[in-house]
Amino acid sequence: MSEVTNGRPRSDGDASGQPPTAVRVEALRAALAKALENASSDDDFVNEIAAAQAFPSRIWLFLEAVEQAPIAISITDPQARILYANPAFEGVTGYAPNEVLGLNESILSYKTTPRSVYETLWKSLHEKKTWNGTLVNRRKDGSRYIAELTITPILDARGETAYCLGMHRDVTALHALKQKVQNQKALIESVIDVAPIAIALLDDQQQVVLENHEYKKLTDDLGVTEPALQVLAELRNTIGLAFEPPKLGGRNFVDEEICVHPASGKAVRWFSCSGSWFEQQDAKADSFFDPQARAYLMLLIKDITAAKRQRELERIGAIRATMAEAELVQSLRETLSGAVYQLRGPLNMIRAAANMLDRRGTQIDTAMLKNALKEALTAGEAALGTFEASMPEAPQEATAPVNLNDILRDVLMLLTERLLAAGITVAWQPTSRLSHFHGRANMLRSMFKEIVENAIEAMNERGRNVRELKVRTEERDGRIVAVIEDTGPGISQELRHKVYEPFFTTKRPLSHSVGMGLAIAQDVVTRHEGTIDIDPDYTGGCRFIIGFSPSGS
Ligand code: FAD
């Protein structure tokens, strides 16, 4: 413990084994007094010391401060020969102050510091400017350390460099830490950059602050400047995801599939997205004593378009197979229904004739005729029964929540080849948000397929130049509605109800149509408690409007 009293420092000693500060200061004071005694009167140095002695308390205060400063301080002559070093100098360099007096500071040089650094150092000192820099130094024991150094020339009254003041500290540990952080950052960045999925780091203002190579590729592929924003908008639409950190009610998410429609008419892309929130402390000075955390979202965007397309093809293939089987049963049912329907006419006539004969009496010839008629009737009814019994069961299907967009998309995919072959352009306009309803997906697909096939056939006739199929979905007045319109000849007003009757057809005799399609379509719609209408106001062709009630309504 030391203090300054009446301009003189007083010290109780030094725990480090150094001579007590007061003793060192006293020795210095004696040396200065001697220099004053020996010096000529016009020597500026002497004048300064003399002036300083007039303010002894300040001098001792500065000396005490330098002696106790925790940073290595040395004072040299203009050629870097050491005149003074403080105790901290020993702590950093391993050299006791009295060991280095008179030596050049270059004893600290490890000789790996580039020459150009020293040249800059000395250039600054010659220009009487302070130099700050970093050198590799060697301690007394030969070990190396990184020194952060400030050297200031101290000018005399004539403006010439009289001394140099050097201050330095060992920043090896700090440098190692900085290097470690930099290495880790470089490692993370290179791992992120070579990752086969797009990665973007967003701050809480939705600004992308870090991105990888795959993410930049996505920028070109989707034709947007910030794909992350499009992905987030799509996640909001599909799963109602809010862009908010967990502490504000947001959440992390894993493998959420979204569909993105690129701006420039390119093919639809599918992505599987995961996001995880984390917090980082603000590094600004304002937050030093009042740490402020900032939230970031790590967004991972995996392109699954190819896999999705493959899955979609497989799904459509499976639907096609199921529908082919159902269609086979259906056509058998239609054929048999036709036969039953046609047999019923003559049989009814036979029954009527037999009844008439019954009422008119019992002459011999009529009795025979009556018997013959009865036998014909019995045989006919047996045949009818056989037909009815051999009619295959309609396929059974359980109800499940159905999305009308999905049904219609499937139907258009199933009929893509036929639409292309007929040169029909398709305008598919699904509404982005559509409620579900309970229904039988296969039955509904077959029904819509029948309607679209009718439209294709209606438009696919010679001389018809405008061939356009518009399919859209919407939710209006609490109903889920599909609108299917074509540019064919349309259905005249008088036939608009007849087309739903069994075996009614306007198609050519060789078209293999028995006229059950719309009758069955109406049956399917009715089973789903829906409605099917032909729009009387549409004159450009035929427009079917099919509506269903959403689940739970
Ligand atoms: P040198 O041959 O001594 O010099 C290398 C180059 O430095 C030369 O090419 C020359 O251009 C220039 N140079 C050297 N001395 C002078 C001079 N007097 N005038 C003009 N140019 C000159 N060095 C350290 O390595 N570590 C330290 O901690 C350190 N502390 C210093 C503190 C002070 C206050 C001062 C003034 C200098 C300090 N130096 C320090 C610099 C040191 O004096 C040497 O210049 C340096 O170490 C290079 O020494 P060297 O023996 O490798 O090369």
CATH classification class of the largest domain:
Alpha Beta
Summed over residues and divided by their number, the pLDDT gives a mean of 84
Compute the number of structural domains.
Answer: 4
Distinct ligand kinds = flavin-adenine dinucleotide
Concise summary:
The protein is α+β, with helices and mostly antiparallel strands. The chain has 15 helices and 19 strands.
Search tags:
553 residues, alpha+beta, Beta-Lactamase, 4 domains, five-stranded antiparallel sheet, 15 helices, disordered N terminus, binds flavin-adenine dinucleotide
Fold and architecture overview:
- The protein has 553 residues and is of the alpha+beta class.
- The chain has four domains: 1-68, no CATH class; 176-303, 2-Layer Sandwich (Beta-Lactamase); 309-390; 400-548, Histidine kinase-like ATPase, C-terminal domain (Heat Shock Protein 90).
- It is 44% helix and 23% strand.
- It is built from 15 helices and 19 strands.
- The protein has helices at 21-38, 44-54, 56-68, 87-93, 97-100, 115-126, 172-194, 213-222, 227-239, 305-360, 364-390, 404-414, 416-421, 441-459, 517-527, and strands at residues 2-5, 8-11, 72-76, 82-85, 131-138, 144-155, 161-170, 198-203, 208-211, 253-260, 269-281, 293-303, 400-402, 425-429, 437-439, 468-476, 479-486, 531-534, 542-548.
- A five-stranded antiparallel β-sheet has the order 4-3-7-6-5, with helices on both faces. Strands 9-8-12-11-10 form a five-stranded antiparallel β-sheet. A five-stranded mixed β-sheet has the order 14-16-17-19-18, with helices on one face.
- A hairpin with a 2-residue loop joins strand 1 (2-5) and strand 2 (8-11).
- Helix 10 packs antiparallel against helix 11, helix 12 crosses helix 14 (441-459) and helix 14 packs antiparallel against helix 15.
- The longest helix is centred in the middle third of the chain and has 56 residues, at 305-360.
- The radius of gyration is 49 Å and the shape is rod-shaped.
- The model is unreliable at 1-19 (pLDDT under 50).
